[in-house]
Amino acid sequence: MNFLRDYFIFLLLCIEKYGLCQSNNGGMYSSSDIPTPAPKFITKGHLYKAVIGDTIILPCKVKDLGAYILLWRRGTSVLTAANLMVTRDTRFKLVDGYNLQIANMRIQDAGDYVCQIGDSEEARDQVHTVEILVPPSVRPVPQNGQITARKGSSVTLECKASGNPVPNIYFYKKNSHSQYHLSEGSTLTLERVDRNHAGIYQCMADNSVREPAYSDIELTVLSPPEIIAEKTWIHAAEGCDIQLVCTLHGDINSEMMWYLNSFLLDPTDRRSMYSKGDKYILNITSFQQSDFGNYSCVADNSLGRTKKYIEVSGRPGPAEFLSPTYSGHLDRYNLTFKIESIPVLEEIKLLYRKLMMNETYQHPGKWHDQILHPSVQRFDSKTFIMSYIIIALEHNSVYEVMVQAKNVYGWNEVSDIHQFYTRSYEISMEDLEYVMSSISLGTRTASYGDKFLIILNVFVVVCLMMKR
């Protein structure tokens, strides 16, 4: 029916232009008429890409159109004939002559549009192809964006996107400060998930049409509670106040309990328990002898129980060495270290030995031990600092040293091994660079007081180098 209607309109236009009947003497052409040039398109057919909602103009300019009628059609439907709008769609109109304007583009507007010269001996037409570009959209699978998985299992995150052209999908992991790219594609598979995999994942769909689209997926990992003790060893003394902290990860429904030597603790006037976010805190004031021992923070849920131990002791803490690795002397080494202890240190045991080594083997020598009763300097209310010069060493040698300390509560654990080098007779620039690197490493995490002692020791080393 549309085709008959369009044909009828086209016929009426022809009658209006040329008349209904023609006599032999009043025909359209006579033998004396000069033939007019055939109409010719000035514009050319083209592919037009338009974003949905935009407005486009399809050009159609003809040279020597003369008495011919210009039509716009799409498939079998005539849109315009001459200056007459045939289509009832108000989004279509002619502008600047016979150019066809289409406003508020829709997906169904995609296709071929033909500008045709009607009533000619041979059909002449020009074809414009319109492609509708659709900005991306994306949605998670499932649509609520919530996925739950057990610890140790594999989980696949999926997003579906639409748009024209087909969008690319990118997965990101969001954290509190930024996000980082994980993969490209509609799915992201995570193997052996744990609590570190939990969080918000974002899939981005992008096809370069306007702005990318985003959708979030929240992954929850079910697992037994995971506990991290802020400190596994805490120094204390009678009369002081202490604080024990455990951080709980995993199921928020887990219950945290505190124990001392396997006995469940309850709040008292000196003991309080509370939480701040994922941190669980045990405060003990006016510390007593009975408060020393092994504490544990315990959490359990439907998937299991986890326990972490914290030792609270009055014994000194392990020695922390502050001296540079390279000695400025041939036969001695200035050993500087600090020890955490609230009570005064009563004794310090020093153990050192030479390492017999060359390019092919390393053999430790015999340990030499000394009991020191030094006048140590208190750095703060909990820390002592001591320097001791080890003498009668061999030049150009490697030594190892350990320190153990005692206060009123007993001896601490023996420290980790600290390795140092005595100077050779020849000092090279490489040795000097080694000393400077020791300064950098030693002061990177040290406090201001510790940094001063490290730099002071190295200053002595460098002066001795220059003197020799």
Automatic annotation (TrEMBL):
Alphabetized GO MF terms: axon guidance receptor activity
One Pfam family matching this protein: Ig_3
SMART domains given in the database record: IG, IGc2
Positions of the Ig-like domain: 39-131, 136-220, 225-313
Signal peptide: 1-21
PROSITE patterns, sorted: IG_LIKE (PS50835)
GO cellular component: axon; neuronal cell body; plasma membrane
Repeat among keywords: yes
UniProt keyword annotation of Ribosomal protein present: no
GO biological process: homophilic cell adhesion via plasma membrane adhesion molecules; synapse organization
Keywords: Immunoglobulin domain, Repeat, Signal
PANTHER family recorded: CONTACTIN 5, IP11255P
This protein's name: Ig-like domain-containing protein
Taxonomic source organism: Chironomus riparius
Lineage of the organism: Eukaryota, Metazoa, Ecdysozoa, Arthropoda, Hexapoda
